[in-house]
Design goal:
Quinone Oxidoreductase, Chain A, domain 1, 7-stranded mixed β-sheet, alpha/beta, 30% helix, 2 domains
Length: 321
């Protein structure tokens, strides 16, 4: 099969290449998926570049997220799953068979069914962002009747956080950096959208204070605003790191009696990941999740796809094997 791969860490143009490799066979408890679309996330270029260095055994095919059709099932897997359309999560974690290839193999629970009527582009956009959003939202309990503030509401995690929170019965505000991103956040259901650069951003969000959840993409940059919106029931949940670790204003955090949670999908308990996959699949079936703007690349353009994500492309970058 044709696959994009790397054998050492480094810049995309230096280490990524497309090669012919043996098609993988599913082992016990695994399924093989013929990939139609592969989704690219920041974690993919960080792993490939060495910022979050992970061991390479021979070669690594990147990307956790994808959509395709199961064409083979290993021992212990219901053979009736062959022919099922699925979306994948954490495909490249702990194994070389990521989704930037014509086929990949994953444990069967990491291939979730795609409901009828859902596009492969939307299905391949889930995985890392939707499951991260789910953990950030629900790790501290249900959301019905709660107020949620989503920082970076136009990003992939922010997009799905808004939609999953609205589906759960929460009021949702989003912060963005400009008009185009404000439109994206409003389109996916945010009740209020505020430019976080505005001097009166906290006043514009006063009706959401104290928030129950603040889903944070840039803790250091936004902590002053977050604490202004926090109280004893608030959880500030951050899922991304910045170049420099933030200084924590301990007294202000104590005054707010705020709780802080840090989420990295790789360390989330597997039971919680499985619940997230089930919930996200049901949200898809309910029509509650929508597509982001999409930029597509061919497999031979894999380096350009990684560079686009590393450069902060708005929406989702997808690769078609």
């Amino acid at each position: 099969m044709r696959a994009a791969l790397y054998e050492s860490h480094g810049p995309a143009g230096d280490v990524l290449r497309v090669a012919e490799v043996d098609r993988p066979e599913p082992g016990p408890g695994q399924v093989r998926v013929r990939i139609e679309v592969s989704g690219v996330n920041p974690t993919d270029w960080k792993s490939r570049g060495g910022a979050t260095r992970r061991p390479i055994s021979g070669f690594q095919i990147p990307h956790h997220d994808g959509a395709g059709v199961i064409d083979a099932a290993g021992a212990g897997v219901d053979p009736g799953r062959v022919g099922q359309r699925v979306w994948t999560w954490l495909a490249a974690y702990g194994q070389p068979w990521g989704t930037a290839a014509e086929w990949c193999v994953v444990p069967e629970d990491q291939a979730a069914p795609i409901p009828d009527g859902v596009s492969s582009e939307l299905a391949a956009s889930l995985g890392v962002p939707a499951m991260t959003a789910h953990r950030c939202l629900f790790a501290d309990g249900p959301l019905h009747g709660c107020s949620v503030v989503v920082a970076g509401g136009a990003g992939a995690v922010g997009h799905f956080a808004i939609e999953l929170a609205k589906r759960a019965g929460a009021r949702v505000a989003a912060t963005v950096s400009g008009p185009a991103k404000a439109e994206l956040a409003a389109q996916c259901g945010a009740d209020v959208v505020v430019n976080y650069k505005d001097a009166d951003a906290a006043d514009q969000l006063a009706s959401f204070a104290p928030a129950d959840r603040i889903i944070e993409v840039a803790l250091g940059a936004n902590l002053k605003l977050d604490l202004a919106l926090s109280g004893p029931q608030t959880s500030i949940v951050t899922y991304a790191s910045e170049a420099a670790d933030p200084a924590l204003p301990v007294r202000d955090a104590m005054t707010a009696n705020v709780s802080m949670r840090f989420v990295l999908l790789y360390g989330v308990p597997r039971a919680a990941l499985r619940r997230a996959a089930v919930d996200i699949t049901q949200a898809l079936a309910d029509g509650a999740l929508t597509e982001l703007p999409v930029t597509k690349f061919g497999l031979d353009e894999i380096a350009a796809a990684h560079d686009a994500v590393e450069g902060g492309a708005v929406g989702k970058v997808l690769v078609v094997p």
